[in-house]
Protein: ABC transporter ATP-binding protein
Amino acid sequence: MNEIIKVKNVYKSFKGKEILKGLDLSVKEGECICIMGRSGCGKSVLMKIMVGLFKPDFGDVFYRDEQLVFDDFSKLRKYRRRFGMVFQNAALFDYLNVYDNIAFGLKYNYKIDKKEIKKIVFSVLDELQLTDSAYVFPAELSGGMKKRVALARALVLEPEILIYDEPTTGLDAIMVRNIDRLIKETQIKRNTTSIVITHDVNSAYRIADTIAIHSEGVIKELGTMDEIRNSKLKETRLILEGEIDE
Ligand SMILES: Nc1ncnc2c1ncn2[C@@H]1O[C@H](COP(=O)(O)OP(=O)(O)O)[C@@H](O)[C@H]1O
Ligand SMILES: [Mg+2]
Structure:
């Protein structure tokens, strides 16, 4: 498989506190990679660097072989469009119904007429079994439904790479399985690369092609679940045994 995203020797500090300390990570096209680590270790910061929202203090990000230029805003915008992001809290607009939440990016990023937008939105609503909730407001949705709407909102823009930041946190076990299935189905059906930040070992086991253990500012270990499961590394053991603060 080809490399689609490469993070090379990236450093990032906030107020003198070093969060990423020479981190390397390579993501292969079409895979589902789960990034696991203790809370506060810098997973979301890494994600924001990968999508071009944060500029590293040092080090580089590559899309295929193209180096990301953080100071070239028009290139950066084009780059960011390759990504769809699904955030932990779903981050929906409370004052818009499901349909308008999903259509939002299409209306503002592209010149597409209303009819076409409707077609696209309803086909994704159908795919995610949300058709009946099209005109409902976020306050009336369950946690799992909100996450599906957040995924729908990302999918209508047809991203090449989907990034999920803690997509299952706060959901019950059944919902977690549903979201996991959805992540996997989306990866396979749409042939997207998926990057999933997760605390949940069971989720990672179900969905990951590759697992990356993020600790002390670097990726300490990378491998398949079977490889990671047999790891003797202390950080990896702690994460797999669920002894992480959350
Ligand atoms: N925009 C920011 N300004 C200052 N500090 C930040 C910012 N974003 C993240 N941090 C700090 O970086 C550290 C890692 O955060 P984060 O990547 O969110 O952790 P997590 O692994 O839980 O996702 C935390 O100490 C956090 O306070
Ligand atoms: Mg985070």
About this structure: The domain at 3-240 is CATH 3.40.50.300 (Rossmann fold). The CA atoms of residues 37 and 215 lie 6 Å apart.
